[in-house]
Amino acid sequence: MQMILPIAALVMRSLALLCLACWSMSQPAAAADRERVVAFLEVTGFDVALDSIALSASSAPDMLGVDAGAFGSQWTRLAEDVFDTDRMRSLALDILENTLDDEALEHAAGFYASDLGKRLVRAENASHLVEDDEVKQLAGNRIISDLVKAGSKRVAMYQRMGNAIDAAGTGVRALQQIQFRFLMAASAAGVIEMDLDADELRALMKEQEGELRLSLQASSLAASAYTYQEFSDAEVQAYVEALEEEAMQRVYELLNAVQYEITANRFEELAHRMAELTPGQDI
Question: What share of the chain is helix, strand, coil (3-state, %, to 5)?
């Protein structure tokens, strides 16, 4: 069975734009109440990032070597049900209500409520909802190429942004874990037959880790170039510096873990539910 990783770029889209890193599940001294967390999701744009997880569902059949078209509208209904945006937001709220402390919430909300923060969120939200990721990547790569030719400092800024995204270097392994859980769930549900057991699959993913890391770094640069092309150097610099602050890092660590867990959870559910599909019986 040939292993491919199309989900990586799709998940990276949200990862790159939200500048999220991994977190440890420690309980804060004072958790925020649900109403404030709802407002926090909106002001930071994380609500739209959660919604955009649904776009990654289109990669699922390719990962499994299954033709979604054979299931007709059954597939569309299933994907919409599993990746229901209200359900994903509710899952996020359940976690954040018990883990996001008031100090971190206020710090991040304060930045994103500023004039620059509001403009950044609008740009990021618009980029999240671009369904054709290939078009966005191509456009971003052209921008990066032009910046390199011009000797612009923007490329270095975007690289710093990438470092702020994944300071602990755990993003690649988290993405591989999402795919691992999806493939194992699909195998257990009888959707696919794998020639590899769990240990062999992990070993294969370990071999692919370096290549995936380079791919994600390139994807991150292109996504940033596309998303922030209307901002000045000074504005991008200010954003990078804000993302590097310790308080913001704590927020991004938490949000990223939430996003990873919800993505993995929904893909596992999708794998189990795909066993219900019947090829050739569209309604």
Answer: 75, 0, 25
